[in-house]
């Protein structure tokens, strides 16, 4: 049996995780943001796959904390990173975290996907999105075949620049709640509260209030039906993005 653990803001990583589960047949899917709340996490299976987005050339803080916390008793460990342009040292970070627990990362794979950090990079054009969705599908197929055949590969852990950028991002993340703004278009529907994987949004009297637990996953501002959430320089008329084949219900906490 294979256990697949995913973290996903806008559905890219979830989409690949779901595809893997379909291919494997005997697999179970678990949300990292839900599982991390357990007092003790024990992963026992023939194989396990961790699937998550690249954040600042590294891995999301919650994924790192999950890997550190989990007791992993598995013969074969794979990690797949979805990314918008370059995942940097994300897989190296996984290998280092597992290595400290005397665990081996057997296989690391990269899954190109649509960029979702729209406050920084804007929305990708429709044609580019189409192209990257096709690239994601092909890379997911390839990774599924590799994992099914228990393929191994070696990931270099010496990635000092990526390690530095990732650590800086993790340090800055909790303070980024200050950069969120909510416009008068908010109708207090509560969707952002339900979709936030970090439990970082509370509903106040006049709309959502952001707390210092944000992982920067971009789910709230991309899924808000009124485009009421902005972050940094993000404008209300900037196109929002989420994976077109993933429903809100699949990502709700
Ligand atoms: C905070 C943040 C940082 C990101 N950093 C990177 C990065 O360093 N390299 C990259 O290629 N993509 C980066 N991205 C893009 C995402 O990794 C990519 O769009 C991913 O597929 C999103 O997955 P999800 O939909 O499962 O959340 C970043 C996105 C966010 C939100
Ligand atoms: S999803 Fe948008 S409209 Fe709904 S409560 Fe959140 S900010 Fe307001
Ligand atoms: S506040 Fe928004 S960006 Fe931050 S973790 Fe929650 S959903 Fe993601």
Task: Please describe what this structure looks like.
The chain is globular. It has helices spanning 12-24, 32-35, 61-69, 90-100, 118-121, 126-148, 160-172, 191-195, 219-223, 248-251, and strands at residues 2-6, 27-31, 42-53, 71-83, 107-112, 180-182, 201-204, 207-210, 229-231. The protein is 36% helix and 22% strand. It has 253 residues and is an alpha/beta fold. The model has no long low-confidence stretch (mean pLDDT 96). The chain is built from ten helices and nine strands. Strands 2-1-3-4-5 form a five-stranded parallel sheet, with helices on both faces. It has a two-stranded antiparallel sheet with strand order 6-9. Flavin mononucleotide binds at residues 8-14, 53-57, 82-88, 113-117, 216-218.
Main sheet record: 5 strands, parallel
Strand content bin: 15-25%
Shape verdict: globular
**Number of helices, counting only DSSP H or I runs of 4 residues or more:** 10
Q: Which parts are unreliable, with pLDDT below 50 for 5 consecutive residues or more? A: none
What is the number of beta strands?
A: 9
Average pLDDT, rounded to a whole number, is 96
Bound ligands, each once: flavin mononucleotide, iron/sulfur cluster
Strand order of the largest sheet: 2-1-3-4-5
Structural class: alpha/beta
As a whole number of angstroms, the C-alpha radius of gyration is: 18 Å
**Percent helix among the residues?**
25-40%
Amino-to-carboxy terminus distance: 25 Å
Helix-strand topology string: EHEHEHEHEHHHEHEEHEH
